[in-house]
C-alpha cells in the first residue's frame, strides 16, 4: 500500500519570507483611505497589552502566575506519546491557553472599530497580488519546488493569520484548497467581511486542536498515511512536538540565528553543541534531533530544499 503524505504547514515566515500580518493590516486603508484610527493605534494597543501579559497577566483575565517549564524537552522526557502528550506539556498548553486573552484583546479592538468591515474577497486577492508583485513579501525559496509533488488535497495550512483568502491568494489557488486553510478567520457575510473575527485559532494550543481534527478526518480514508507539520515560531512548538506528526522547525540560522537559538536551545532544550555544529556547517541542511512515539521525529531544516531531502531520506 502506498504511503500518503499529509503536509500541514504554518504560513507566516514558514511559507513566506516575512510576517504578513502588518501587510494585511494595510488592506483596510487601501480600500478605505480615510479610515480611523490608523494601523499604529492597533499595534500600540497590542504592545501595551503584551506588556501587561508579561508583567501582570491578571489584568487581561489570565492566571496570576503563568508557569512555563523550559526547556520543554528536559532530561525527564524520554518519549512523547499520544497518552502522555497532554500531561508532559500541561504547563505549556495552559500558558498558550492564557495567551488567547492577549490575542482576543487585539482582535476585539479591531472588530469594535470595524477595521475590516465591508472589504470583499476579490479586494483581498487583488491586494495580495499587488503586494507580492511590488516585493512587499514573497514565498520562501524552494517552496514551489517542494509543492510540485504534493497534492492540494493533502496540503493543509494552520495559521494565526486572519484571512484564508489572503493566505490562499499568496500561496496559489492551485496549491491549496480554501477549505484546507485554517486560521483566525475574518467572518464573512457572503463574500464580504463583517469586521468580526472567528477567534478560533489564536495560539499554539489551538494549532494542536486543528492537527488532531485533520488527523481524525484523514485517518479513516483507508490508506497508510504519514503526517508532517512544518513551522518556524514559538506558536508552532506544540504542533512540532505532537506525537502524530513529523515536526520540522524550518529556519535558516544564517538569516535568523538569534530566533533559531532561542527556539532550539532555550525553548526546546536541544543540545547546544549539536546546534552549534548545525549552525556552522553549510553542508548540513537538515538534522533529526528527537524521536517521538517510536515512529515520528522532530527535525531541523534550513530551507524548503533541505526539507525535500528529509522526505527523500525517510521514504
Automatic annotation (TrEMBL):
<dbReference type="InterPro" id="IPR050849">
    <property type="entry name" value="HAD-like_hydrolase_phosphatase"/>
</dbReference>
<dbReference type="InterPro" id="IPR036412">
    <property type="entry name" value="HAD-like_sf"/>
</dbReference>
<dbReference type="InterPro" id="IPR023214">
    <property type="entry name" value="HAD_sf"/>
</dbReference>
<protein>
    <recommendedName>
        <fullName>Haloacid dehalogenase-like hydrolase</fullName>
    </recommendedName>
</protein>
Amino acid at each position: 500500500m502506498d504511503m500518503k503524505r499529509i503536509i500541514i504547514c504554518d504560513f507566516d515566515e514558514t511559507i513566506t519570507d516575512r510576517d504578513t500580518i502588518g501587510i494585511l493590516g494595510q488592506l483596510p486603508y487601501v480600500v478605505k483611505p480615510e479610515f480611523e484610527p490608523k494601523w499604529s493605534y492597533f499595534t500600540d494597543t497590542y504592545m501595551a497589552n503584551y506588556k501587561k501579559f508579561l508583567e501582570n497577566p491578571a489584568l487581561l483575565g489570565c492566571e496570576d502566575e503563568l508557569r512555563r517549564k523550559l526547556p520543554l524537552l528536559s532530561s525527564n522526557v524520554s518519549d512523547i506519546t499520544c497518552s502522555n502528550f497532554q500531561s508532559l506539556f500541561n504547563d505549556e498548553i495552559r500558558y498558550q491557553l492564557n495567551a488567547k486573552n492577549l490575542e482576543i484583546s487585539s482582535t476585539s479592538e479591531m472588530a469594535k472599530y470595524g477595521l475590516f468591515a465591508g472589504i470583499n474577497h476579490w479586494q483581498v486577492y487583488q491586494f495580495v497580488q499587488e503586494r507580492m508583485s511590488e516585493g512587499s513579501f514573497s514565498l520562501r525559496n524552494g517552496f514551489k519546488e517542494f509543492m510540485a509533488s504534493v497534492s492540494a488535497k493533502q496540503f493543509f495550512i494552520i495559521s494565526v493569520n486572519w484571512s484564508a483568502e489572503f493566505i490562499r491568494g499568496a500561496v496559489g489557488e492551485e496549491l491549496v484548497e480554501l477549505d484546507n486553510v485554517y486560521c483566525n478567520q475574518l467572518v464573512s457575510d457572503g463574500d464580504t467581511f463583517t469586521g468580526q473575527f472567528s477567534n478560533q485559532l489564536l495560539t499554539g494550543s489551538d494549532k494542536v486542536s486543528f492537527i488532531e481534527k485533520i488527523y481524525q478526518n484523514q485517518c479513516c480514508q483507508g490508506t497508510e498515511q504519514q503526517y508532517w507539520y512544518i513551522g518556524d515560531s514559538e506558536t508552532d512548538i506544540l504542533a512540532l512536538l505532537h506525537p502524530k506528526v513529523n515536526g520540522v522547525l524550518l529556519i535558516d540560522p544564517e538569516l535568523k540565528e538569534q530566533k533559531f537559538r532561542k527556539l532550539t536551545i532555550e525553548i526546546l532544550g536541544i543540545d547546544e553543541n549539536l546546534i552549534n555544529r548545525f549552525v556552522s556547517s553549510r553542508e548540513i541542511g537538515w538534522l533529526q534531533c528527537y524521536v517521538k512515539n517510536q515512529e515520528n521525529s522532530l527535525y531541523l531544516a534550513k530551507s524548503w530544499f533541505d526539507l525535500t531531502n528529509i522526505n527523500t531520506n525517510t521514504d
